[in-house]
C-alpha cells in the first residue's frame, strides 16, 4: 500500500491522502475529532463499515464521514482519496451559496451522505483531487479546496437532500424544484419551469421568491452558472459549447451573468482556476 501524499499542508484548511491497496488491507474502526472526511473511491471497490453498517463503496462514489460517525475500511486492489476538513467549511459554503440549513442537513442526516458521480463526470472529480494533492502545500490550496467542496456538495451530496423542504413550502413548488433538479445539466427556461408548475407567472414568482429567498430567474441562473463553472475547469470545451450546454441561448447574456456571479469572465475564470490555460 502506498503511503499518504501531502498529508500535512502548509496552508491550513484541508488534509489529503491517497491510499492504494494491492493486497488485503484494513483500516480499523475509528472516529474523527473536530473534522469531517470525504472518502472518494477512485479504483476498484472496498468494504466501508459506517456506524456498524457495512456497504460496498465503488469507484466514483463519494461518502461524507461526519464527526459523529465511526467507520472502517477493508479490501484489496482498490484506491481512494480522503479529504479531511473542519466542518466549519460547510457553514462558510452555506453562507456563500445562500442555502440556510445546508450544513445541518449534511451533518445531521440519519446516515452519512453519499453520492455516485455520473460516469462521464468522474474524470473531472479525479482531476480536482489531483489539483488538491498538487497544491495542498501551496498558497492556492484553500482556493482549490473551496472550489472542490462547492462542486461535491452542491452537485452530488446536496441533491440527496433535495426532497427535504420547509413545512410551509407548497406541494406544487416542491414538485417543481425536484423536477428542475432532475433536468440537470440541461436546465429548462424560466417559462418552461413556470409552465410545468401550472401556475401563472405572477403567482409563481411571488411564492418562489418568498420561500426560496431568490427570484426564480436568479435561482435558475445560479444553477446554470455553477454547471458552466464546473465545465470550464474539468473539460476542454470551447466557451460557446459550455454556454449552450449550460442552458444559455445567448453568449453575451451568459458572459454577463457569469461575470456578475464569479467576478471574472469565463475565460479568465478558467485561466485562473483551471489546471491548464485553454484558449477559446
Folded structure, characterized:
- This protein has 280 residues and is of the alpha+beta class.
- The protein folds into two domains: 14-119, Jelly Rolls (Sandwich); 162-280, Arc Repressor Mutant, subunit A (Orthogonal Bundle).
- It has eleven helices and nine strands.
- The strands form two sheets. The protein has a five-stranded antiparallel sheet with strand order 1-8-3-6-9, covered by helices on one side.
- The model is unreliable at 1-12 and 276-280 (pLDDT under 50).
Mean pLDDT over the full residue set = 84
User: Which structural category fits the helices and strands?
Assistant: alpha+beta
Count of distinct strands: 9
CATH architecture of the largest domain: Orthogonal Bundle
Spatial order of strands in the largest sheet:
1-8-3-6-9
Order of helices and strands: EEEEEEEEHHEHHHHHHHHH
Content of β-strand? 15-25%
User: How does the overall form come out from the CA principal axes?
Assistant: globular
CATH topology of the largest domain: Arc Repressor Mutant, subunit A
Number of domains: 2
List low-pLDDT spans: 1-12, 276-280
